[in-house]
């Protein structure tokens, strides 16, 4: 065979370079599924170039850093405790029956195992509940990227008619009546009547401390 005329190392280099070369010269739209599967089974350098909207800078996926807030950090300990309690408390919802953890259950990798979420009055939502284990790493939240921060996202989840259907001032009022929350509020905010923004911030701090391990 003619290929055998080349020295061994050159043959290896040629074989390795082939998928990379193909990725550059071939438009992925013209490749069939089998050809694409072969390319994606190889090293990432050989994958077809991504088609990006203008203004988007490409960044390769990589190992994520540690959670931004360490659970043992004394500065955040009380806020994490409060945020965690709120996350698992159904009394935040209008029906007093649905907590964040109904749809983001740690036993199911912070999701609910359903195709579409079931929320207030057993209404079936429009979308699947994403895992929140790396929510702190996302710049845009929700499937369509409509929330720019976890704070914005939580208020959306609390008030969404298909999710918790809560009114934020009423939710705060309910929580202030619960005796057991007083020491948690005191520890986290040095007073016993936190604002809605402080309550939301405690849940954010809790979510920013979640490690997937
Ligand atoms: C009834 C189910 C349900 C409840 C209750 C619920 N969520 Fe969600 N959550 C969802 C669904 C569905 C989405 C995706 C919605 C979308 O993209 O439009 C979502 C999205 C999110 C996201 C964005 C994740 C990402 O990567 O974009 C976070 C974070 C989150 N929820 C946290 C919370 C918190 C905190 C609470 C409680 C205050 C909560 N959720 C209550 C179902 C729920």
UniProtKB/TrEMBL annotation:
GO terms for molecular function: peroxidase activity. Residues 78-211 form the Cytochrome c domain. It comes from the Bacteria. The keyword Phosphoprotein does not apply. Its main location: other. It is found in: Cell envelope. InterPro entries: Cyt_c-like_dom (IPR009056), Cyt_c-like_dom_sf (IPR036909), Cytochrome_c_Peroxidase/MauG (IPR051395), Di-haem_cyt_c_peroxidsae (IPR004852). It holds the Pfam family CCP_MauG. Keywords: Heme, Iron, Metal-binding, Oxidoreductase, Peroxidase, Signal. This is Cytochrome-c peroxidase.
């Amino acid at each position: 065979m003619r290929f055998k005329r080349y020295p061994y190392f050159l043959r290896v280099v040629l074989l390795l370079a082939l998928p990379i070369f193909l990725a550059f010269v071939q438009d992925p739209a013209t490749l069939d599924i089998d050809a694409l599967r072969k390319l994606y089974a190889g090293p990432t350098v050989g994958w077809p170039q991504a088609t990006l909207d203008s203004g988007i800078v490409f960044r390769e996926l990589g190992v994520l850093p540690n959670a931004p807030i360490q659970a043992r950090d004394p500065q955040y300990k009380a806020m994490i405790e409060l945020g965690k309690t709120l996350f698992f408390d159904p009394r935040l919802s209008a029906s007093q029956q649905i907590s964040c953890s109904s749809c983001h259950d740690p036993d199911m990798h912070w999701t609910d195992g359903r195709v579409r979420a079931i929320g207030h009055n057993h209404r079936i939502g429009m979308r699947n509940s994403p895992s929140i284990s790396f929510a702190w790493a996302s710049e845009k939240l929700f499937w369509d990227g409509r929330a720019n921060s976890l704070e914005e996202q939580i208020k959306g989840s609390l008030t969404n008619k298909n999710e918790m259907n809560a009114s934020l001032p009423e939710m705060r009022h309910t929580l202030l009546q619960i005796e057991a929350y007083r020491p948690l509020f005191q520890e986290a905010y040095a007073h016993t009547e936190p604002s809605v923004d402080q309550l939301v911030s405690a849940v954010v701090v809790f979510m920013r401390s979640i490690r997937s391990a």
